[in-house]
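User: My collaborator sent over this chain with a note saying "see what the structure looks like." That's all I know about it. Can you take a look?
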Amino acid sequence: MLLINLFPLLSRISSAISHAEYCVVVNGHNGMPIESIDENSDINKHYTGNSEDVFDETVLKHWLTNHYIPNKPVLFNDSIPDSYQRLVKHNKAITSISMIPITVSSHIYGVIVLASVESKIEASAVSRLSPVLGSSVMALKAAQSVKGHNECISEKIASNHFLDSLLATSPVCVVVVDAKNTIVFANDAANKTFVGLSLDAEQEMTGSQIDLFLPNYNSLFNWRRTNRRAPRDNDESTLGFLEEQSAIKQSGVEFIVNIHVFRHSFGENLYTTLQISDITEQRAGLEQFRETSQQLNALTHLVPVGIIRVDDQWKCQFANDKWLELSGQSAEEASMTGWLDAFHSDDIQHVLEKLRASLIVGENFCSEVRLVNPYGNVRWAEMNTQVLYSDNGNLQGFIGTFADITERLVYQEKLKHTAEYDSLTGLANRELFTKRLDQALLASNRGDFSVYVMYLDLDGFKDINDTYGHSTGDVLLQKVSDRLINTLRQTDTIARFGGDEFVVLLGRNTRDDAHIIVAENLVRELARPFRIEENQLNVTCSVGISMGIGGVATAEVLLKQADAALYLAKGEGKNKYRMFSEELNEQAKHRMYASAKIRSAIQHDGFFLVFQPQASIANNTLVGFEVLLRLNDKETSISPQECINILEDTGQMISVGQWIVKESIKQMSVWLKSKLMPENGFISINISAKQLLDSHLTSLIFDCCKDNNISPERVVLELTETTLIDKPKSALRTMKQLKSMGVRFALDDFGTGYSSLTYLQRYPIDHIKIDKSFISDLLTDDNNAKITQSIVTLAQSLALKITAEGVEDAATLSVLDKMKVDYFQGYYLSKPITADEVNNVYPAKQTSNVLPIRRRLKK
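Assistant: Without extra context I'll predict from the sequence alone. Here is the result:
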């Protein structure tokens, strides 16, 4: 019964030492160890103060009968596991809880549960309680064992010989002090601790004053008495505890001890029994433990990774702040199996399967998982686990860490997107397109179907960039991309290769003419105007198409063939599509050859000018020359019109055109000085659409006329209808500026377009040049004759000068004379000739009667 009576005393000891506000000691009935307890067994509970209102008896019994008691002391401050939180009634909020097993010879006889609301239980207090509980239980257990043999051993033997032997062999220092503070008994452990290992009668502590060894003995008792913590003199059952007291060995060495005080009387004499424990090493270890615990606790809550401790029943025993942040759970929600709710529903099955497998084989687990908070926000985490085992090798669960890798994955995805997608339009780039084209060719080889590639280029994009700026050009490219996406299917791949070049990979289609339908749709859709801010922009596209089958064609070959087809489509007037063929390939090669020749001519002054004379029909006199550009290459097969087209397509027409203007006006100045040109003579210069929209054209002509002392009235700029189609407002503004200087305008190839009359009304036109297609059949085609007469009548009514192009014979010239046409040009007068030939054919002051000159030129 001594052990049973000890438990109420232990509750008061534990409460006093730990300073916990609430304490309960729970043990089995009749002092049996808890492994012998089942659900039908009775248990004893010993509360301090009003602790009975705090602890949940049902849960306490459940822990005891199910053997949940830990075999080592545990302490939780702030982050209290849900399983431990349930030990306290629901209406009580605690900040600290500790559970300390009462253990003797590896058997647990009970448990002390401490709880606090306003303050935290210190780890040092828990560590101090353990040896007190152990020694107390051990001593009383021994005493109980002795008394159990009273039937066999006399009480005197039991109380004297046996207990003397017990005290002598006890590793705990036991000192008995009388009322005069004289030591009347000290066991071997006390003598060895305070005096030394080699003992004799004179060196023993017995007979010495206790303050020689415990200098603060009296003052401590006075302090405890003042603070009402001293045992009453006549209360043998009251135990006192003096912690971390200074002690002195006989050698003078100071050390720290804990003292348990028992007061008892024998007869009329009062004695104090001191149980003294040297805690020097323990204190040093405790300090190290406290420091390590603080560091570990801080590290656990400060590390930027989530940490959970899960037992072998998949119940979460601990979760740090970062886990709660990542999962969006509270500590209570994460406890038990609630931590599993944080995993994405698509991941949880996979995670559990892999985790179970790792625990079975004892291997650590690593995986990228998604955590979802209660608001639905998803975070990616790298999960790593460390399997935990007990000392005897039993699985105890695992510790899991969760590093937030969301930003890293987002960054990796951005890098991948940057590597494979165009930053401006969001379309695939060349690298990704080539990968998909390779995949399509492999699939076509297995599935026996054709792969189609389309190369697109925007017609007129450079002009928009130059006129409205690159920001507008970028917006246009984005709108073009959107229109391409809306026009094509989801199975098609669209890529931007840079600039205004787009490439399309058509997905598999059962129709043989699918590529033609798609090309026509693209040309039609991109020809629709684009609205950007206040501007309506018009562009068209040229499309080149190639076709191949895996095993025969490669991605590189298909792209080159589509590019070659595109090249020809642009050369044929743009806004068209062309399918690659071998014939087309030859044309593309020729165009590339021509482009190379023209680039070389620009770099090495490889151009020259020729001049085609224009004469008055009425008086047969020279009135001017039309300036024409030629490529200085005797072996070339490049036509003049092809040369002009390539210059315009490559954006070189403006720079070459500026050279033409300068050289033409300079040459006219020479002829005027030599009297070769009549006083009202003029020089006609062909101007492209890009030249007319060039902001420097007006100043260029003004400066050239000024530098060469030429009146701008002698300059006639020849424009075609296509020149005026693009940006009519800008064209009209430039023409008005030049017109104010005296420059005149001729509408070339009149009658071949649909809006000729509109241009005469809208623009300041001075001359009309009747296209040679009407003149060549003038004598044999009545309709052409009627059209020509109508044009002449219209021009005369508008007071416009008329020039007939392509006059080849005298009969045609005679008809034109009767129609009152002003001027003519053509091979009947002269082919285009160089400036030197003009000087030879037209001597100074002999510009009248020009027809004989034709015969002279032939000679």
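A starting point for your reply to your collaborator: The CA atoms of residues 191 and 659 lie 119 Å apart.
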